[in-house]
Amino acid sequence: MFQYGLRYIPSKDDGNVYRTVRIENIPPTVTLKDILPAVSAEIFLARLANTIPITGSQTALITFVWQCDAVRFSQTSKAGIKFGHEVAKVVPVNTPTYPISAELKRLIFKEGYTRCLCVANLRETLKSEIRRVMEKSSYSHDIEKIEDGLVLGETYIRFHSIKVSAAAYELLKNHRCFTQCDFKFLKKDRDTRGTGSEERNFRTKVQESHTRIGIWD
Q: Last residue of a domain, which of 92, 118, 133?
């Protein structure tokens, strides 16, 4: 029904190409903040489209880091996702997903970047400053949630994409208020509700130099 622009046609040797699912019949009042907690595994990018004039409801496109997670989510959500009295339908997108850029691949697979950024070693007086800085930034519309972490002195910032999370990390680590903070990225299955975080730590100090189609069957 919907066209997503130019189509990516993978070669026969390409893998990990069917990474996107579509969630249909989402009520008008529902936002990504309501949707994403119901999505398992690591999300690369989440978008919510206003398709109300066309279908009478909203539509979400969820792109995963891994194709196997898109397949698994589609299979485990066959009964749909309930939002109030409405049940949204999860549909696999059978056109190939555009590949992740080389730089983002490096950040994700080598450096451990995810869409959940944890700011640690944060004084209580600076928690409101984190929120203020993020809400004034160009990334404010791509924030799912800002919340306290499981450990004292931690704040979790969840974004709609890993790309925005990476950009926000650069913004915060270079901000004068947060030079004594630690930064780490948390995995979806081991973040605020896990027993222990699978994380990549990034220590930032003032004196440090900053270097720089049958798969659904």
A: 92
